[in-house]
Amino acid sequence: MLCCMPGVAVVPALLVSWSSAAFIISYVVAVLAGDTGTKPPESGIFGFMINISALLAAVTMYIRYLLIEKQNEASRFVRSSCNIFSLCIGLMGCTGMGIVATFQELAVPSVHDIGALVAFGSGVVYITLQSIISYKSCPQWNTYFVCHIRMAISVISCIAFIPMIVFASQISMTKIDWTPGEKDYTYHFLSAICEWTVAFGFIFFFLTFIRDFQRVSLRVSTEIHED
């Protein structure tokens, strides 16, 4: 199905498919193994797949940046500096994803938490900026329906991000197995719900890029100069 997609729509489609598979496969392996996703082998599988997702996200963001730059040449609807800033914030989030995947929660919890904060925080800022840029490009380059969807996802992600940080900051211990009723379990449970809400918010947001990318093709031009 991915090979049949026109333009470069295969990139965000692959990002969404791969990231969803990363969550689902890790969860299934964890359930079958009878433990959590922070133990081998599911932690290794999750880390490997998230690193690939970070790379695909970076490529998607860069193509999105090029697309906006090209559209901006035809109709000036956003400052180029804003587009560059959005790209830098997005790439920062991809770096955070790489940190999360590389430094596991139990091995280096402080580095893992910093990576998660950078990934989620930068990600929320990125999709919010992209939602604003989408509105500015209406109606020539985007429909208001798509813009409303993107903004709704951004608002939900922002709302979930704040309590995620608040609840996570109240957890006084780093552990794998949580039992209902024990200390900090409620904070852990609520923080996890918010974290998954933001994570899937990113996935659904990139899903909206597919239609835009169907109209785009990347070409590499080579010029040979003779003396």
TrEMBL record:
Chief place of localization: membrane
Pfam family, any one: Frag1
One GO CC term, this protein: lysosome
Localization terms from the record: Endomembrane system
Keywords: Membrane, Transmembrane, Transmembrane helix
Domain annotation CWH43-like N-terminal: ranges: 9-215
Record's bilayer topology term: Multi-pass membrane protein
Residues spanning the membrane: 7-33, 45-63, 84-102, 114-133, 145-167, 187-210
Transmembrane as UniProt keyword: yes
GO biological process: regulation of autophagy
Family statement drawn from the similarity comment of this UniProt entry: Belongs to the DRAM/TMEM150 family.
Name this polypeptide is given: DRAM1 protein
Organism annotation: Chloroceryle aenea
